[in-house]
Amino acid sequence: MNLPRPVGHQKKALYLPSSGHQVVLGSAGTGKTVMAALRAQYLSTPGIEGHGRTLLVTSTKALSGYLQHMSRGAPEGLDVRTYGHFARGYLNSRGLMRGRNIVDSRARRELVGQAIRAVADHYPGHSLFGRKVEWFEDELSWITGMGFQGEDAYLETERRRRSRIPENSRSIVWEILEHYHDLRDEKGYDFDWDDIAITVRKELAGDDQPRFYRHVVIDEGQDLSPEEIRSLADAVPPDGSVSFFGDYAQQIYGQAMSWKSCGLAVRKVERFQDNFRNTKAIAKVAIELSSQPFFGDSEDLVEPIAPKVDGAKPTLVECQDEQEEMEIVRQTARRLSAEGTVAVVGRTWEEAERLCRGLESLHVKKNPYSWDAPPGVYRSTYYSVKGLEFDSVIVPFCGAAHMPSEEALDAFGEEDAMAREAKLLYVAITRAKSDLVLTYSGKYPPLLSSSPGLFTEVRP
Ligand SMILES: Nc1ncnc2c1ncn2[C@@H]1O[C@H](COP(=O)(O)OP(=O)(O)O)[C@@H](O)[C@H]1O
Ligand SMILES: [Mg+2]
Is 296 strand, coil or helix? Predict the structure, then answer.
């Protein structure tokens, strides 16, 4: 596989010591994924000092497939996995996986809903219960992802962080979490996808077998919870290593969590700033989006340097209605796919499928998507497109009616919803190598800057 040759900071990151913890942050398109793949190959190569079995791990299946493809021909001691795959495998080796004992997201929502209703009965009229189930799910995921050992640790952290929950509600949230666990036990489940990491850590603490992996390399580390990262750090021996690659501008799951809360012992953070993927004009739209006040700020964000490659301005198409947006998506996908790879990005898989209806003759493919995929149309979602890249990207429904979505607004309120949705859009936009087409109908997209000259603005 012909991966690019590392330059500058990339070289440094690639050959960081083969023991200890390393963190590499970089904005989109700066080579994190490629360097993560190369570093994993390097660490698993026999003959290299400190080499050993290596786990290259990320959060989504699509990106894990992409990394797998990049790692073809890599040494045998390299495994590419999603975190869930790794955790299940480890717990299985400890005899803890039996049948279907992880609750899936639909059943989880049902159980969280039941827990809320049961606890609400004890607090009639309390304002906390005006919130949507999605909000509670998100909060319970955050608590679990932080790995709090008991209510006091949660309340203490809540006191310190800029909490979104009024003081008199916090212990009620904890009560809901405990009740959810009871209901889950009653149904015969042992875990959900959030707390599986807690058990991995507990098991590793008492596991005196030699560690299976000597090195762990993480891509899109900002999308793993602190407890997941800690469990990966626990999974390697003291002379092993953890290399964390991430971009906090693309944190699309839940609430802002820094690598600093993951217990990694890092002396110096490497930063990648040179964008090798996008054209200048596409990067400008992304940079503009990330500098909007609603995008949020964090010291983990790396200021991107505008790339040097010229290209056409992204196109913003103002349509009369959604029907026309779908038509434009199909026409554009047909035209651009003659020459390269085109991603049609929907909010859900159903939406992506609906958008591509009528393009059957083009044999539209769903992810998994590979590094050297042939020209054609690929349907994807904001979540699954993470980490991938395409010659062209088409993002419909950017208008006020869809972005931020009603669900996000209902669950999280305007400020938080804007920040979350802006990150989703940022991920989608930064996947495009040379062409980016956005469509909307109705009011001008609230997330997009109206600075003149960013887009070629057209009406069909
Ligand atoms: N040193 C380099 N020289 C040339 N191209 C590079 C280099 N590093 C990365 N690239 C290219 O830039 C694009 C983005 O790389 P990727 O690793 O996906 O970035 P990130 O994960 O940071 O978003 C890919 O097409 C990759 O091949
Ligand atoms: Mg990447």
Answer: coil
Q: Read off the pLDDT of each residue in 24-53 and give the average, rounded to a whole number.
A: 96
Strand order in the sheet with 78-82: 78-82, 54-58, 215-218, 241-246, 20-26, 269-272
User: Across 15-106, where does the E strand assignment appear?
Assistant: 20-26, 54-58, 78-82, 102-103
The count of other CB atoms within 10 Å of the CB of residue 377 is 24
Report yes or no: 217 and 72 within 8 Å, Cβ to Cβ: no
Span 9-94+194-272: which CATH code? 3.40.50.300
E-assigned strands of 66-180? 78-82, 102-103
Residue 302 DSSP label: P
How far, in Å, is the centroid of ligand 2 from the Cα of 363?
A: 26
Q: Name the phi and psi angles at 369, rounded to 5.
A: -125, 140
Q: Across-strand partners of 57?
A: 81, 218
Domain ranges of the chain: 9-94+194-272, 102-189, 280-458
Which phi and psi angles does 113 have, rounded to 5°? -60, -45
Q: Of 14, 23, 33, 276, which is best to mutate to test ligand 1, by the most ligand atoms within 8 angstroms of its C-beta?
A: 276
67 CB under 6 A from ligand 1? no
Taking Cα atoms as reference points, which of 249, 192, 230 lies closest to residue 386? 249
How far does residue 287's CA lie from ligand 2's centre (Å)? 17
- At residue 93, the 3 state secondary structure works out as helix
- For the segment 279-308, what is each residue's pLDDT rounded down to a tens digit? 999 999 999 999 999 998 777 778 778 888
Is the minimum distance from the CB of 4 to ligand 1 under 6 angstroms?
Answer: yes
Fold of 280-458: Rossmann fold (3.40.50)
Determine the Cα–Cα distance for residues 31 and 367; give it in Å rounded to an integer. 21
Give me the helices (H) in 212-271, please.
226-234
In this structure, which residue's CA is closest to atom 14 in ligand 1? 29
Strands (E), 255-389: 269-272, 315-319, 341-346, 365-366, 376-381
Please state, in angstroms and rounded to a whole number, the distance separating the CA atoms of residues 200 and 84: 11
Confidence band (pLDDT; 50, 70, 90) for 260?
confident
Q: Residue 305 gets which letter from DSSP?
A: B
Mean residue pLDDT of the chain comes to 93
44, 62, 235, 236 from 20: Cα distances, Å: 16, 28, 13, 10
Q: Do domains 9-94+194-272 and 280-458 have the same CATH topology?
A: yes
For the stretch 163-221, pLDDT in tens is 678 888 999 999 999 999 999 999 999 999 999 999 999 999 999 999 999 999 999 99
